Amino acid sequence: MNAAPTPDQLLASRIAETLVRTGAVAFRTSPFFRLTSGAESPVYVDNRQLLGHVAERLEVIGAFLEAVATQQQAPDAIAGTATAGIPWGAWIADRLSLPFLYVRSQAKAWGKESAVEGAAPDGARVLVIEDLAFSAGSLADAAENLRAAGFLVEDSLTIASYDMPSARARLRSLSLRHTTLTTIDEALAAAARAGSLDDEQVSVVEAWLSDRRATGN
Questions:
Q1: Can you tell me the mean pLDDT for 179-189?
Q2: Nearest in space to 20 (alpha carbons), one of 154, 209, 194, 142
Q3: CA-based, 20 to 30 A from 125: which of 34, 111, 140, 195?
Q4: Among 192, 214, 213, which residue's Cα sits nearest to residue 29?
Q5: Rounded to an integer, what distance in angstroms lies between the CA atom of residue 195 and that of residue 4?
Q6: What phi and psi values does residue 87 have, to the nearest 5 degrees?
Q7: Total Cβ atoms within 10 A of residue 197
Q8: Which of 1-15, 77-91, 195-209 has the lowest mean pLDDT?
Q9: Domains and CATH numbers, the chain
Q10: Considering only CA atoms, which of 24, 22, 44 is closest in space to residue 32?
Q11: Which residue, among 144, 163, 164, has the nearest Cα to 154 in the 3D structure?
Q12: Average pLDDT, stretch 82-105?
């Protein structure tokens, strides 16, 4: 007998279904999507689509708040990565009545030349919010820039993750815990359940994900 799914698994499945239904995660195997980098992928993630879907947006915010409530220590402030994490971070900070920051991957070259915008108490425990983790580069940059600004950063949250071993290793090296609401694998399963992909297409995406995880890019 299969074990009943845990609350975390049910949440991951539900959020994945929401991402697929709103087009925030899309799959295409013939042809692949062409990404900004020039690479080709059978997966395209655009969580900006969620911004225009009020009920689904509130669902994701609620899931984020549940994740925050389970963390070892409550944050003193919330930071959103520029630009995709900014709206989510701002909504969460508002719900929790906490200071909000947004953080760039690198300091701007004008004005105060800051990588971190906004204000929070010196030494505040800051939770980083991002919409997606692939290589985890933006999460790593955000943590390092916030730490350089004098904040304590130990936790991060994302809507979705590719669950790349290289990304997990990178975040471990920075002692940055990462929690994601769902994964691309969950979204693939949701798309298959919805009838958007047949078995052959699912196999193509699975093979692509396996190859990316093996090669680290």
A1: 97
A2: 194
A3: 111
A4: 192
A5: 24
A6: -60, -40
A7: 22
A8: 1-15
A9: 7-215 (3.40.50.2020)
A10: 44
A11: 144
A12: 96
Q: Where are the beta strands (DSSP E) in 21-69?
A: 25-27, 33-34, 40-41, 43-45
CA 117 – CA 182 distance, rounded (Å): 28
State the sign of the Cα–Cα–Cα–Cα dihedral 118, 119, 123, 126.
negative
Residue the block writes with tokens 């919409």: 131
Asked if 53 contacts 23 with a C-beta cutoff of 8 angstroms, the reply is: no
Position of tokens 């690198």? Answer: 106
pTM: 0.94
Cis, bond preceding 83 (omega within 30 deg of 0): yes
189 is written with which tokens?
Answer: 């399963």
pLDDT for 8: 87
Q: Is it the case that residue 105 has pLDDT exceeding 80?
A: no
3-state secondary structure of 112: coil
- Cα–Cα nearest to 129, from 152, 104, 158, 92: 158
Indicate the residue type of 54.
V
Q: Which residues contact 114 (CB under 8 A, 6 or more apart)?
A: 107, 108
Mean pLDDT of 40-68: 97
**Burial grade of 198 (CB within 10 A; 0-12, 13-18, 19 or more):** exposed
Which tokens hold the place of 173?
Answer: 């090296």
The C-alpha angle 131, 8, 91, rounded to 5 degrees, equals 35
Q: At residue 99, does pLDDT exceed 70?
A: yes
> Three-state SS for 135?
coil
